[in-house]
């Protein structure tokens, strides 16, 4: 990379920090930006700054949103008695696209991963408990991924919610074991939600 002028090297280094992007891909992206128009580069830079300035976490469900509350929590037609717990915003979006769910969500922003130093305190678990105990929530659907970390997180939440009145269900295994919700097709996700089971 030493053959590149310093500003190009800097861009490649910044792009290579993105997940799944190695130096090779970063170089290709940098070349694309360099060859593009000044306006294209400006738009890209502005969209990055804009997203950092405007996007925050919904104060109710912790989904990414613009403003205080996300559009799902603000929608009066959504069933507030049902809360679907997901690992990340990607999973929420995938379930929304299946179009079979009319309840609300709770985004954990991670799963238990002791080896990576992610314990219960790093997830939005206390917020979930507060939300369930202080409201009319009847059912919590655990839609963490059907892999080891997702299952252990689901078990922990089940245990934490046991003292409450709420019904805890787990999505059915229509989703491939070891897979991730965001890669499942709409039909599979829809069925997985429909045939959820009690925990
Ligand atoms: Zn929300």
Structural features, described:
By secondary structure, the protein is of the alpha/beta class. The chain has 8 helices and 7 strands. The strands form 2 sheets. A 5-stranded mixed sheet has the order 4-3-5-6-7. The chain has a two-stranded antiparallel ribbon with strand order 1-2. The longest helix has 17 residues, at 38-54. It is elongated. The mean pLDDT is 90. Residues 58, 60-61, 63, 69-70, 72-73 line the site of zinc ion.
Query: Can you give the helix content as a percent range?
Result: 40-55%
Task: Output the structural class.
Answer: alpha/beta
Order of strands in the sheet with the most strands? 4-3-5-6-7
- Mean of the pLDDT scores? 90
Principal-axis shape equals elongated
Report strand %.
Answer: 5-15%
Q: How many angstroms separate the termini?
A: 54 Å
Largest beta-sheet details: 5 strands, mixed
Bound molecules: zinc ion
For the secondary structure, the number of strands is: 7
Which regions are unreliable across 5 or more consecutive residues at pLDDT < 50? none
Helical segment count:
8
Which value, in Å, is the CA radius of gyration? 20 Å
Order of helices and strands: HHHEEHEHEHEHEHE
């Amino acid at each position: 990379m030493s053959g590149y002028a310093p500003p190009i090297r800097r861009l490649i280094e910044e792009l290579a920090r993105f997940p799944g992007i190695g130096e090779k891909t970063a170089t290709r992206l940098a070349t694309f930006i360099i060859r593009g128009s000044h306006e294209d580069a400006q738009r890209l830079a502005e969209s990055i700054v804009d997203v950092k300035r405007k996007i925050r976490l919904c104060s109710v469900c912790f989904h990414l949103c613009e403003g205080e509350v996300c559009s799902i929590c603000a929608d009066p037609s959504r069933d507030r008695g049902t809360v679907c717990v997901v690992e990340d915003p990607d999973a929420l979006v995938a379930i929304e696209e299946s179009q079979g769910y009319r309840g609300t969500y709770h985004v954990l922003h991670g799963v238990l991963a002791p080896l990576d130093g992610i314990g219960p305190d790093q997830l939005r678990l206390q917020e979930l408990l507060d939300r369930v105990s202080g409201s009319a929530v009847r059912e919590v659907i655990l839609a963490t991924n059907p892999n080891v970390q997702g299952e252990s997180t689901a078990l922990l939440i089940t245990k934490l919610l046991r003292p409450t009145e709420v019904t805890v269900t787990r999505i059915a295994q229509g989703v491939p074991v070891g897979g991730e919700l965001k890669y499942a097709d709409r039909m599979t996700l829809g069925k997985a939600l429909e045939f959820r089971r009690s925990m």
